[in-house]
Amino acid sequence: MRRRDLLGLTATGTLLALTGCGTNKGAAYVDGKLTMAVVTTYGTGTSTYADMAAVASAITDVSGIRTRIMTSDTAIGRISPVREGQATFSRTGDDYIFAFEADHEFASKAWGPQPTRVVWAPTAPHGLLTREDTGIRTLEDLRGKKIPRITANPSVNTKIIVALTAAGLTESDVEMVPISYGEQADGLKAGKIDILFQQVYGSSLFELESATKLRWIEMRRDDAALEKAIDDLSPSLMLGEFTGAPGQAEGHTDVGYIYAVPIITYAQTEVETVREFVTAILDSYDGYKDATRTAKDWSPESAITEPQQVPFHEGLVRVLEERDLWTATSQKRQETLLERERQLRAGWKSVTTNLTDTREIAAAWSRWKEDNDV
Asked: What is the mean pLDDT of the chain?
């Protein structure tokens, strides 16, 4: 979906795009029925936003539920409004996992383990994009290059570290350049960075393609080092093919990361609110499935319907049960994750009782996890 299409959607009044954390309530109801929900997500130049915009419009048409979108380039900026009740949902990267685990920015006194829950988990392809003139073709070619370190975005940074690790490289072997997620396309065009990492169909990447020749950095499904790096650092990743992205000749395919970019909420969100919202997503599928390159992956056949690293919300579980998509294996995994949540909360309390400094807390928390094999 191009930027002009998004502007067209906004003009219809079915979707209100907000740019920061305001004082809006996260949801509205009439006679106990959900009529409005606020969702946080990435910025307007991303395909993540484009998907959410298309889904929001279709949901309004089919169910009457209005969806307002708040954008942020940072993990904290997407999760905080949900925590504070300004938004009910967030469509985000692995931030929901880091919040659940109290890793990275969430390993602080102000945060700690968060009761995040998956609401719906469509998958999407992501890759490493470069200009043709950088000479970068394989992961090994990243040595000595300018690599983005995305501001307050551990989800993306982890994926980049996976690629470096697979090539036998560390951050000391490259030049790490601080940059925000939304600035990457302009940064690559200007030569500030030599690669970027994004969902492959972002409108900003199509705009970039019109200004400079691009290529996707080669990843191989049979790369044992890449598979090991994924298993060690980001086990929810899969490798898969994509086509029709900027920088690709017609019919050409490349391999990238495939993983869930889910809608999430907190455990305390009302079961019926989540059930209604998930039902609206599924019932309106025909209205948005062709709106973007990745909208088709919101179907139950493509979405992740078994818990991976964070529990599913009870409202989602009920929908899956109603549609015969919840299995005994799913329930066992759900219970394992809920028990892990209890362990994390108890461990966090014991680790942080006498600590206030963020660095000390992060170090102590990492040691506790390692010592307790959690």
From this structure: 93
CB atoms within 10 A of CB 9: 19
96 dihedral zone (left: phi>0; alpha: psi -120 to 50; beta): alpha
Rounded to an integer, what distance in angstroms lies between the CA atom of residue 354 and that of residue 65? 46
What is the 3 state secondary structure string of 4-17?
HHHHHHHHCCCEEE
| Interval 124-149 mean pLDDT | 98
Three-class DSSP category at 237? coil
What Rg do the C-alpha atoms of the chain give, in angstroms? 20
> What is the spatial distance between Cα 270 and Cα 85, in angstroms, rounded to a whole number?
12
pLDDT for res 25: 67
- Please check the confidence at residue 13 and state whether its pLDDT lies above 90: no
Amino acid at the residue 288: Y
Please choose, from the candidates 119, 153, 123, the residue with its C-alpha nearest in 3D space to the C-alpha of residue 37: 119
Residues 264 and 10: their CA atoms lie apart, in Å, by 23
In angstroms, rounded to a whole number, what is the distance separating the alpha carbons of residues 157 and 348? Answer: 24
Q: What pLDDT, on the 0 to 100 scale, is given for residue 374?
A: 86
287 and 304 in contact (C-beta within 8 Å)? Answer: no
Please state whether beta strands 253-260 and 238-243 pair in parallel, antiparallel, or not at all (unpaired). antiparallel
pLDDT of residue 26: 87
Cα–Cα distance for residue pair 48/295, rounded to 1 Å: 10
Are 226 and 219 contacting, i.e. CB atoms less than 8 angstroms apart?
A: yes
Q: Residue 165's closest CA among 104, 230, 216, 256?
A: 230
Mean pLDDT within 128-133: 98
**What is the SS3 string spanning 123-177?**
EEEEEEEEEHHHCCCEHHHHCCCEEEEECCCHHHHHHHHHHHHHCCCCHHHCEEE
User: Where do we find the tokens 């809006």?
Assistant: 24
d(CA 367, CA 355): 14
Give the SS3 label for residue 179: strand
Pick the range with the lowest mean pLDDT from 18-27, 142-151, 173-182: 18-27
